[in-house]
DNA sequence: ACTAAACATGTATACATTGACATGATTCGT
DNA sequence: ACGAATCATGTCAATGTATACATGTTTAGT
């Protein structure tokens, strides 16, 4: 499947980048649906180079500090274009440890269950607020052909996802309070 | 972290099960937020046995077909109880290939983009309908102490998640139609 | 002059996960 | 009696991912 390959190629279509810059991209908006740290990125870039999907040239900062700036090749663009066009079956639903906890939550007394839910809620609210702040920077919907359109869509998706998760937690809290039990299990 | 360990222990608290039965559980509701196939489950059960978290006894069907029925030990219950009680920081947002595609969707012409979105939409609608049919079986909210309460919460969560994903896709379709471009990139 | 943060690239080890390979028994329908 | 579906358990190789190890430079602030 090699999704990381296409994530990197997609970034390099926008502009040539170093491995370090690619890693940074993954820690901004992109992290809302994809992530890789540098220990995965550098080997992948090496592989992409040997496959002819990218080429690099070395830039020097200061006296000796080298950075490899990678550019996507025609072969890379062609491969990426085929990938992005391809219909795809639904992935398996992503794993979610908190949902796993809630699935087994009958093993908890009401107090503990609600504590866990409130804690999780707070974290999602914080994330939501961060996302909303980033979203405020878009004063209008970017043109569908600009590469900021993709950023806009996934950021909107991330906000909706967080709002929905919070709504689910609220339902869980409500049901737990409505329906108290004396002792667990 | 060993989430699979706790997923298995949680199931075994409900009742003793064979590896085969555990694998089956992962392909029903549980698959909405966790999954493992038998090639992961059997080794994990072996490990849990050697750690003293579970024990098994062999059942024979017919003449010779052996099945190992695993039972959780006191040590296993204690370990699970500590785990379920523990507060947890948010996981990294799960990877989502379709969102990755949409992030790079400025490389597509409007027609292709909408085709991909419609295709994905259909698949989510199908999944949603399946989930709703399962949900109809709950004529009332199960008691918070019954082990069907967890099933109920995560099933409700899965329905909300699918509805929300479809709403996001609809927004993407709307923005793509509102904001057409002549040629990609 | 010093220092902290950011720039920059790599490797290694362990763990998690997938899909294929491998084998065979039992049950249910026709 | 036959065949298909289900029951049942395991290993292996490849891939993917996380965390730590490892090293050194440059820049911006004080």
TrEMBL record, chains A, B:
InterPro entries: Tscrpt_reg_PadR_C, Tscrpt_reg_PadR_N, WH-like_DNA-bd_sf, WH_DNA-bd_sf
Limits of the Transcription regulator PadR N-terminal domain: 8-80
Entry superkingdom: Bacteria
Transcription regulator PadR C-terminal domain residues: 95-173
Segment forming the signal sequence: none
Protein name: PadR family transcriptional regulator
Organism: Lacrimispora algidixylanolytica
């Amino acid at each position: 499947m090699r999704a990381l390959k296409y994530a990197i190629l997609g970034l390099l279509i926008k502009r040539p980048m170093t491995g370090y810059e690619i890693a940074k991209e993954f820690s901004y908006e992109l992290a809302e649906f994809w992530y890789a740290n540098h220990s995965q990125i550098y080997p992948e870039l090496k592989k992409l180079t040997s496959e002819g999907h990218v080429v690099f040239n070395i830039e020097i900062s200061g006296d000796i500090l080298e950075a490899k700036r990678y550019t996507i090749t025609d072969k890379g663009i062609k491969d990426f274009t085929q990938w992005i066009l391809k219909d795809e079956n639904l992935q398996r639903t992503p794993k979610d440890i908190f949902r796993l906890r809630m699935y087994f939550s009958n093993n908890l007394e009401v107090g503990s269950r609600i504590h866990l839910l409130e804690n999780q809620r707070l974290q999602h609210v914080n994330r939501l607020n961060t996302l909303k702040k980033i979203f405020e920077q878009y004063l209008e919907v970017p043109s569908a052909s600009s590469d900021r359109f993709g950023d806009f869509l996934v950021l909107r998706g991330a906000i909706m996802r967080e709002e929905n998760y919070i709504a689910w937690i609220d339902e869980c809290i409500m049901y737990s309070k409505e329906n108290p039990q004396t002792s667990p299990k």
